[in-house]
């Protein structure tokens, strides 16, 4: 497989689908990449079907400083070869909250180590790791992940701290996580209400 040729083919598709207005809006909202074609997610998902799900290709795409290449990397990366240490590198180099959300949706939630990474990242003081941890635990709660008492207490502690974070993306992710937790049962609902009440009064 000629990875460089495939990269060229992908970029050709991206240029064909370029949306200058969307790209300009993203720049105005602070989403900055060296290259941003403004291609919307449905079109990117369609483009992804035209190319192989391949580890080397995904890693090459991630190294490109282009919004769409990084999104496609998360879609085309096979979860079986997405080892925990690679996941950490991706989060460490994650440039935007948008990419964190999309990579969590397409890839992080499918990792064999997803639950372990969610708790590990939530406990990390670095903002992007915390954000990805919260986004990931939210996805896992949507998949009805079961937590033992210790994990649940840790989750609630981390979410309560995140609810008071100065970063708006982290605060929103924490709200989403606690809402998904509350929707699992009446008991969880009551626990979540206590956390939210304390957060509002702090």
Helix/strand layout:
Blueprint: H1 3-16, H2 20-28, H3 41-48, H4 55-63, H5 67-76, H6 84-92, H7 97-106, H8 114-122, H9 127-142, H10 149-163, H11 168-182, H12 186-201
Describe the structure using short key phrases.
mainly alpha
Characterization of the model:
The protein is mostly helical. The chain folds into two domains: 1-77, no CATH class; 97-202, no CATH class. The chain is 69% helix and 0% strand. It is globular.
Put the structure in a nutshell.
69% of the residues lie in helices and 0% in strands. With 202 residues, the protein is mostly helical.
* N to C succession of SSEs: HHHHHHHHHHHH
Number of strands: 0
* Mean pLDDT across residues: 92
Task: Specify the biggest β-sheet.
Answer: none
Distance between the termini: 56 Å
Low-confidence stretches: none
Q: Helical percent range?
A: 55-70%
What general outline do the C-alpha atoms trace?
globular
In terms of DSSP E residues, the strand content is: under 5%
- List the total number of helices: 12
Radius of gyration: 18 Å
Question: Could you say how many structural domains there are in total?
Answer: 2
Structural class: mainly alpha
């Amino acid at each position: 497989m000629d990875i460089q040729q495939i990269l060229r083919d992908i970029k050709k598709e991206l240029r064909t689908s370029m949306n200058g207005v969307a790209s300009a809006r993203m720049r105005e909202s602070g989403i900055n990449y060296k290259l941003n074609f403004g291609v919307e997610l449905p079109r990117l998902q369609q483009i992804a079907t035209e190319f192989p799900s391949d580890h080397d290709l995904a890693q090459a795409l991630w190294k490109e400083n282009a919004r769409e290449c990084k999104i496609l990397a998360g879609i085309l990366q096979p979860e079986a070869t997405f080892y925990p240490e690679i996941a950490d590198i991706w989060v460490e180099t994650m440039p935007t909250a948008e990419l964190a959300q999309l990579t969590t949706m397409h890839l992080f939630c499918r990792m064999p180590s997803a639950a372990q990474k969610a708790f590990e990242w939530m406990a990390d003081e670095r903002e992007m790791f915390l954000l990805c941890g919260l986004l990931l635990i939210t996805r896992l709660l949507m998949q009805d992940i079961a937590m033992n008492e210790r994990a649940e207490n840790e989750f609630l502690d981390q979410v309560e701290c995140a609810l008071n974070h100065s970063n708006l993306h982290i605060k929103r992710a924490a709200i989403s996580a606690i809402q998904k937790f509350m929707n699992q049962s009446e008991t969880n609902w009551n626990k979540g209400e206590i956390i939210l009440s304390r957060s509002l009064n702090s």
